Structure formats: C-alpha cells, structure tokens
Amino acid sequence: MTSRVVFISVLLLLWCHSRHVLGSGDSGTGIVPSPDRSADGADLLSVGTMVGTHSAMLRQGSTDECDIVMNLSAADRCAFVKATPDCSMEDSFINYLKMAFCLLPPNLTPLTITLCIIWLLILFIVLGLTASKFFCPNLSAISSSLRLTHNVAGVTFLALGNGAPDVFSATVAFSRPHTAGLAIGALFGAGIFVTTVVAGSVSLVKPFTVASRPFLRDVIFYMAAVFWTFIILYRGTISLGETLGYLGLYVVYVVTVIVSAYIYSQQKHSATRSSVQSSTHAPGDTHVPELQTSESDQAPLLSNGSIQEGYDSEYRPLLPYCESTSSILLNSLNPVDSRTWRRKTWRWRTVKILKMPLEVLLLLTVPVVDPDKEDRNWRRPLNCLHLVTAPLVCVLTFSSGEYGLYLIEGQFPVWALTLLFGLFLSAIVFLTTSNDQPPAYHLVFSLLGFVVSAMWISAAASEVVSILHMLGVVLSLSNNLLGLTLLAWGNSIGDCFSDITIARQGYPRMALSACFGGIIFNMLIGVGIGCLIQMFNNEPVVTLEPEGLLTWVLAGSLGLSLAFSFILVPLRCFHLGRAYGIFLLLFYAVFLLVALLTEFGFIHI
C-alpha cells in the first residue's frame, strides 16, 4: 500500500510540475512567432529560426534536439516537433510529442499530459498482466517439457518471466540513442528499490536468517555488474566485446548457481547417508535421523496446481457431460470465475472489472499451456482461433507494425497473407482434433504463446519508454529521474507485493533470493541485448553519455547499498531483523530525497 501511495503521489507531483512548466513556457519566453504563418502553422523563416536556435543550444552540451522544444513559444512547438528528426518517435505506435503539442490547443496541453499518464498506468497493467498470466505459465510449460532442473529453470526461464517488463523496457530504451538514460535510471533505480525497499519490507514482515553462500554469491555478482556499468558510463562508450561480456557474465552466474547447487546436494546426500549408517550401527539406538534442509529448499506440501485440482474436483459433475464447442469458446474467454467472484471483496471486483477488457484481449490472442491440468488447458475452438490472431499480433506489433503493413509488390499487405495462412492452419487443426483430447503437438502452443506474449510485452514497453521520453521533454525532467521513479516503480511494485506475500507465507529466503536473482538478470541481459540491438542498427560502438550529476548519484547509491549489505549482513551473522529492515527503508528515503534535490538543482557541482 505504501508503494502505491508513493507511486500515485509522484504522478500528482509530475502533473503539478507540468502545469508550472507549461504555464511558464507560455508566458512569452522563447522565439516570437512569425506574423505571416502558412496554413500548417509555421513558415520557412520560423522553422529556420528555430533550427538555428536549437543548433546553438546543442553546441552547449545537449544531445537530444527535442529537449529544447519547451524553450520555444507555444505557437512554434508543433512546427518544431514536426521538423525535428529526434521528435519522430518511429519505434512507437503513437507520436506522443505531436499529440502533446499538435493535437489540442496549447492551453489544453496539461489535459493531454493527464491522458498520457492515465495511458501509462494502463500500459503498466498490460505489462504485469501479460507477464504473470501468459508469459510465465508458457515459460513454465516450456521448462517442464525440456525437463530442466529447478535451479536451471530458476535462473533462466523463471528469471526471464519475473523480469520480463524490466528487461523489455531496458532493451527498448537502450536500443534508442536518446532514451538510454531511461534504461540506466530504471535499472539502477529498480536495483536500489529492490535491495532496500523490498528487502527491508521482507525483513520487517518476517525476520529470518539468510542463507550465507547464496546471499554472498548474488551480492558479489550484482556488485560486479554495477561496477562494470559504472566504468562504461565513466568512459561513455561500450564496444561489442564489452556488450558480449554482459551476456557472458550472466552465463558465468548461471553456471555458478548450477555448480553450487550440485555441490550442496552432494554434501547433503553424503551427510544423510553417513548419519543413516551411524544410526544403524549404533546398538539400541532407534532414533531416526532428521534430514537437515535449508528453508530455501522447502516447499509447501501441496502446490497451487494440486490445491486447485482438489478444489475443482468437488465441482465435477457426477455424470459425463459433453460441452458444446460454442460454450467452450465462451467459457474460455470469460476471465471471471464465479466461485472466486463471490468470495472476493468489492474492491477486488472493481479492479477486476477494469482489467476485464485487457484480459479478454489477451485471452483472444495468447494461448496458454498448463502442464498441471489434466487436459493441459486445451480449448479446441479458442486454440484454433489463436492460430489466426496470434500471428496477426506478431506481424502488427513487430517494429510498430511496419512489416505488417508492408505491401507485397505494392498490392497485397503482409497482414492479409498472415491472416490467410492462419485461417488455413486453424481449419486443419480444427478438423483433425477433438474437444476432449489435446493433440500430441499441443506443447507447440506454449512456444506460440511465449512468442506472442513477448511481442505484447515488447510493444507495451516501447510505448512506456516513448511516453516517459515525452514526459521528460514536456516537463523538463531528465530521463534518469523518470527511469528511477516511474519506470522502476511501475515494473517493480508487482514484484514487491509478491515477495512480501511469499515472506508472510513463511518463505522469506525465497523472497530475498528472488530479489537479487531478478535484478542481476535485468542488469546483464537488459544492457547486453539493448546495446547489441543498437549496434546492429547504427554503429559498432555505442555512446552512453551520463545525464549530469544524477547518474552518479544513482550509481553511487546503488553501490553503497550493496556495500552495506555485503558488510552489515555478515556482521549480523546473516540475520535480517526489523531494525535492519527499517535501516534499508530509511536509506531509500534519503536516496530519493537526494535524487530529487539533485534533479531540481538544489544539489549541484
């Protein structure tokens, strides 16, 4: 609840700041508009004056030409946005800068900003909903079909599922020349948020003793990733070898986790075997040795799938019932369970009603395979419909629909060809399968669901980055601040509540492991993949220019929080109590205060 209040408070603060910035921008400062305007809002003389002015300002150190639009008069901003390449936003479906300055009159720009913030909240809901209900289940099905161990699945597929919004947002931001600050702010901001607020909340909810070796391993690897990123930011450039080094470091981390888990299991097995042998050779001793397992290896006696299966078995009909194809389709598209609906509060029902259109849209386009269910979630009419809608989503969301709208030989669009191909596959599957028995190739639908949900997440992340870039331009805020607040909080609040819930259920070690494992994956994969994409599109060497003092405040605060964890936790014998949790929360509050004072110029060099 506290995180939600902080998130909403910052949104209100940004809205009030937008009123102030826009009001001061309309007061007459900037370029005086030309009296003889053309029909589209600016003549050649006005545009030439603006280009000359912004070129002079760029020579003073600015890298994004679009940042100076607020220095112009309100009447000239639309023409400047249309004439400046950096304001094009080609990677998103909507040009939010044109919408802010050209869609409505200048006096209604705060209304446009408010609508964009509401749309930003909806996009965060799409990110969380897609990752939790569609992306993660399909990843679980893929890992089950590949027969991966829990350790391998945890540091690969599970990490990708939990960090999908962060990774996709960072990848999109790093792949664009002028939004890398968003990725840096989001990755560093999320790292500080997770290692202080989330870890501190877990310690407050359930004080516990952390597993020493996994904790030190994760902290050391994360410190190495942060230090590497700090060096690259200090140099200002990153080469192909260094980018591959990010991915290589994560491979080393995965191998270390697997090897350490194997060594631990062997030691535990040998200790158990020796204790059993000693008990059998001891005369008159009938004591059965207890197996010493760490809390992180324990699991509930009943998994969620078995609980749900036992619960659903009470409602199974006594006589066999053959459900029609149309009823299967309608029931599959219903995101509300009537039994769950009756048990929940009115607040949960209100949120559910608001999310229902998004859930129905995702149910229509993303197949989900559940290996825990008897029929593996096979819904014949809906899965056949997925063969039509899923490829369409892929071609229409990839590269903002550029390839989907491409005309083959100038006549036939790619999306129409994809539609015909999907209808052909759907007809074959529908005619060769039944409603009761899933086909042998049903697991292929998990791959399709993985790809389509990844495309949805990528498209939503691209829009989030574009909106935050627009907010940074309009509100005269740095990308770092928007990244460490809105983008980091929007992607991390869901993980925060999940980890606190896991801690309340009695598994605080599992919650803390999820904290560090996820941010290591986000840092290494997000930076590595994002810079690789930019290298393939532009130059072999990517330039990463720090956006002022706030970048170093971010890096220094994250390094300091990790240093505190690396020193204080072993000194406390790896026990995380409520006092340490309060210390972490106070540390984040001080960091946030220093970051805001730095952004608004109260702290400067």
TrEMBL record:
Protein name: Mitochondrial sodium/calcium exchanger protein isoform X3
GO molecular function: calcium:sodium antiporter activity
GO BP field: calcium export from the mitochondrion; intracellular calcium ion homeostasis
Domain Sodium/calcium exchanger membrane region: 118-258, 446-596
One cellular component term from this protein's GO annotations in UniProt: membrane
Organism: Salmo salar
Residues annotated as signal peptide: 1-23
Ranges for region Disordered: 274-294
InterPro entries named in the record: CaCA_antiporter, NaCa_Exmemb, NCX_ion-bd_dom_sf
UniProt keyword list: Antiport, Calcium, Calcium transport, Ion transport, Membrane, Signal, Transmembrane, Transmembrane helix, Transport
Gene behind this protein: LOC106584999
PANTHER family: MITOCHONDRIAL SODIUM_CALCIUM EXCHANGER PROTEIN, NA+/CA2+ K+ INDEPENDENT EXCHANGER
Subcellular location: Membrane
Topology term for the membrane: Multi-pass membrane protein
Pfam families, sorted: Na_Ca_ex (PF01699)
Transmembrane segment boundaries: 108-131, 152-174, 180-199, 219-238, 244-264, 382-400, 412-431, 443-461, 467-489, 510-537, 549-569, 581-603
